[in-house]
Design brief:
This is DUF4432 domain-containing protein. There is one protein chain. The protein is mainly β and 392 residues long. The protein has a single domain (3-370), classed as Distorted Sandwich (Beta-galactosidase, Chain A, domain 5), CATH 2.70.98. Helices cover 7% and strands 41% of the residues. The protein has helices at residues 11-17, 326-332, 357-370, and strands at 3-4, 7-8, 26-31, 41-46, 51-56, 62-68, 71-72, 105-110, 117-120, 131-134, 146-155, 158-170, 176-186, 191-200, 206-216, 226-228, 231-237, 263-269, 276-283, 288-295, 301-307, 314-320, 337-339, 344-355. An eight-stranded antiparallel beta sheet has the order 11-12-13-14-24-20-19-16. Strand 11 and strand 12 form a beta hairpin. It starts with a strand and ends in a 22-residue tail after the last helix.
Amino acid sequence: MPDIYGQSLSRHDLEARTGDLGQFAGVRLMHLENGVERGIRLLEFRSGTGLRFTVLVDRAMDIADCEYRGQAIGWHSPSGFRHPGLHEYEGEGGLGWMRSFSGFMITCGLDHTLFMYDAPTDNYVYAPRQVAKQSLHGRVGTIPAHLTGYGERWDGDTCLLWAEGIIRQGAVFGEHLELHRRIEIEVGSNAITLNDRVVNRGFYRTPHMLCYHINLGYPLLDEGSRYLAPIRDVVWASHADGYRDQNVGYRTPPTPQRRFHEQVWEHEMGCDDDDQVPCALVNDRLGLGLCVTTRKTQFPCQFQWQNFQAGQYAMGIEPSTHHVLGQSGARDRGEMIWLEHGDERCYQTRFSVLDGDIAIARCEQHIAAIAQQPAEDYPAPSGDFRRIGGRS
C-alpha cells in the first residue's frame, strides 16, 4: 500500500480522500514555453512523498528537475533546458554539447561517449565518408523521443507512475540505433527506476557506448557533503599532475570556488552479491541524500565529476560502459561493444532519495560492506584499467 503523509493507505482509502489522484501524486504532460526552452514537452512526476521530478520528452527523456520536499537534488546550469532545434552537434570544435548541458540526468551515447574522436566508418560501406566526427558525449541527449505512453497504473493497492518512449539515432549510410526507455516510480516511494534497452535496428555492424551524466547540485551538494562509493581502486584522475593544487580531494566538496578547474576521477567499484553498485552523495546537515544504483555487468566503469566553479556548482556520478580512455582506447583494447542487426543491450538503474539519518546510515553500511573506500582525500591513482571482458 502507498505510504502517503505517514499513513499506509489502500486504493479504496486513497480514492475516498480525493476525486483525482493528481491532488497529491501523478504524472502529467506539459510544455515549456519561454526562452531557449520553448517548445519542449515535459512530463512531471510527483510520487506523493514530496519527491518531484521532470522528464524532458524532447531531449531523450532525460530527467531535468529533481527535488525532494522543496530541496533541490538535481543541477541546473546556465544553459537551461535548451530546445534540441537550437543544438549544433559539431559546434565549437565538438564542445557544443556544453550549451545543452543541464539537468539531473543526461544520457551520453549511443555510439560514442567522452571527448571528441574521428571514428573510422568502413563498417558503413560508404566511401565518401571515411570518418565520423564524434563530438563530446555523442548525439542522443538532444534527440526528441517518440512518446509511446505515460500515466498511472493500479495493481491491487499499488499504484505505478510510468512513462515510455523511443529515441532513434539514425542516418543514411550510418548507425541506426534505438533507445527504448521506461521511467517509473511507485506512489508513496522515493525510488525512481530507469530501464533502458539499446537495439541496433540497422544492418551495419555498429559501435555502442553509453554513459549517464548524473548531476547533483545545491543544497544536496554543499560544503560538508560526503561522497560514498564502494571504491576498490582509484584508477585515474584528470588532474593527477597537480593532484593537490586546488585543495580538493575526492571525498568532500568545498564551497563554490572562483577559477576552479573541473576534476574527473575514474574509480574501480565493487558490487554486492546481486551485481549492484550503490553510490551516493549525502548531506548530513539536511538529513538528505541521493543513492544511484547500477549493475556492474552493465556499467563496469564509473567516473566522478567535480565542477565546483562558482555559478556552475555541481558534482556528477557517471556510470559508463567504457573506461575514460574513450572510443579510441576501447577499440585499441578490444573492448568496444559491437552490435549486429537485432542485437541489444539492457540497463537498469535506480535513483533513491535518502530521507533522514537512518536511511543515510543504512546506505552507508551497505556501501561499506561491499568495499571500504579510501580514507584519504588524495589516494594515488593506480593507472590499472582493468580489462572488460565479454565483448565481441
